[in-house]
Amino acid sequence: MSVRGELLQRFLDAASGGDHETLSLMLSQSRELLDERGEQGWTALMLTARNGHYEAARVLLTSGCDTRVTNRSGQTARDVAVFWGHTHIARLLTGTDTQEPDIHFNREILDRMSDRRSDGEWLASRRASPETVFLLFHALSPLVRSGAEREEQIELCKLRSTAVQELLTGSRTLEVFLGVEKQDDGQPAWFALSTEDDPSQLLQDKDPGSFFLQEAMPGLLRLSDDDAGVVAQARSVLAWHSRYRFCPTCGSDTKVEEAGYKRTCLRAGCRSLQGVHNTCYPRVDPVVIMLVLHPDGKQCMLGRKKIFPPGMFSCLAGFVEPGETLEAAVRREVQEESGVQVGSVQYLSSQAWPMPSCLMIGCHCVAVTTDIKVDQNEIEEARWFTRQQVMDALVKDKQAVFIMPPRQAIAHYLLKHWIGCNANL
Ligand SMILES: NC(=O)c1ccc[n+]([C@@H]2O[C@H](COP(=O)([O-])OP(=O)(O)OC[C@H]3O[C@@H](n4cnc5c(N)ncnc54)[C@H](O)[C@@H]3O)[C@@H](O)[C@H]2O)c1
Ligand SMILES: [Mg+2]
Ligand SMILES: [Mg+2]
Ligand SMILES: [Mg+2]
Ligand SMILES: [Zn+2]
């Protein structure tokens, strides 16, 4: 074995054994060991996760190791920690105290403070504060600029009150209070402002280099996880305003209340003014999205819509209908789209999907029949894929027979979770 190979082996052994002092010492001399893989394709972090060594994992993390690296089975160190039941390490690797996966659009950096929505005085003081952040939207698109860290990334333009003065007083601006920052002691408030005015005029001096994002998909997938979470909230509420301008009960004009979270009918005597009416509040559409597992446990079914990029297959999905449980919606949609009958259904995780305002409810379910007959109106093709084929697609192997949905979609997580559930470690 080469000297370098021996050094790496000593480093990986220290990780396996939880020897955090040796890890620190070796890193201070050769930092490049940090994300290196051994012969089995595992990094030091994965080994600490496998064996539950918290302190050793923390040393690697604080040294800046990359938590996204995957082994040959497409598993990150966090997946390994979850599989072996080391939840304290899984939490450390997620960087949060919650156990939910950190999926795009789901991160909440703001405390929504719904109790302040009707406190006009407090809102006015926040609006005037120099710390307050304003996000600008036009036709549901946020004002963004190219990201500082990576070229494909974009970031939200966070404007200050001086930059939006004329918009704040303008009658063509809609304002939504989003919340206050959780992490910052000063708790700066954030507002979304939607303007109907021509963006080219607005952009001239606001923020050089900024632009309104052209297309929500795939544009919004280029935001950082922090920004994406804020946009999920703001865009869904603004989309509701743009679609529900008039009272759904009687068609009269409405006024905006509760800092952008309510629209109240202006016609005295309207039925919507008595009792609680859900038409007055922002709407959310529940959608079930499911990975259908073969009865043999070794394959899963994926389908493709005509609009998907060539080669991409993803989980089946569909809107929950009125008067239906999630389990019934999963069984009905799978039956409609693929002709396959489903038995047990297990809920896993959800994702906000602000196009315009869906809540994706992610499930695994087990098929009881296997013959596929697709609904050609919605699905072009559906197939059973083996675990190995999913792993190849996940690590973008040359032999991969299909392309995974993007990592920002919950479909990607549902597939990854299935791979993580197997004992092939
Ligand atoms: N995040 C992800 O990974 C992911 C993956 C797949 C789909 N999605 C989202 O889920 C949504 C629903 O999936 P689908 O299109 O397969 O659903 P679907 O299978 O129920 O079929 C869509 C059709 O259902 C009808 N429909 C019923 N209720 C509706 C409602 N409330 N709003 C709009 N149309 C309704 C419409 O005719 C529509 O064309 C998609 O629009 C997409 O935005 C997200
Ligand atoms: Mg569907
Ligand atoms: Mg359908
Ligand atoms: Mg449907
Ligand atoms: Zn009305």
Automatic annotation (TrEMBL):
Domain Nudix hydrolase, first and last residues per copy: 282-408
Quaternary state and interactors: Homodimer. Homodimerization is essential for its catalytic activity and protein stability. Interacts (via ANK repeats) with BLMH.
Alphabetized GO MF terms: metal ion binding; NADH pyrophosphatase activity
Cofactor: Zn(2+); Mg(2+)
Similarity-based family: Belongs to the Nudix hydrolase family. NudC subfamily.
Single GO BP term: NADP+ catabolic process
Name of the protein in its database record: NAD-capped RNA hydrolase NUDT12
Locations listed in the record: Cytoplasmic granule; Peroxisome
PANTHER family named among the record's database cross-references: NAD-CAPPED RNA HYDROLASE NUDT12, NUDIX HYDROLASE, NUDC SUBFAMILY
A Pfam family annotated for this UniProt entry: NUDIX
SUPFAM superfamilies: Ankyrin repeat, Nudix
Residue spans crossing the bilayer: none
Keyword Hydrolase applies: yes
Keywords for this protein: ANK repeat, Hydrolase, Magnesium, Metal-binding, NAD, NADP, Peroxisome
Annotated ANK repeat ranges: 40-72
Catalysed reactions, semicolon-separated: NADH + H2O = reduced beta-nicotinamide D-ribonucleotide + AMP + 2 H(+); a 5'-end NAD(+)-phospho-ribonucleoside in mRNA + H2O = a 5'-end phospho-adenosine-phospho-ribonucleoside in mRNA + beta-nicotinamide D-ribonucleotide + 2 H(+); NAD(+) + H2O = beta-nicotinamide D-ribonucleotide + AMP + 2 H(+); NADPH + H2O = reduced beta-nicotinamide D-ribonucleotide + adenosine 2',5'-bisphosphate + 2 H(+)
Principal location: cytoplasm
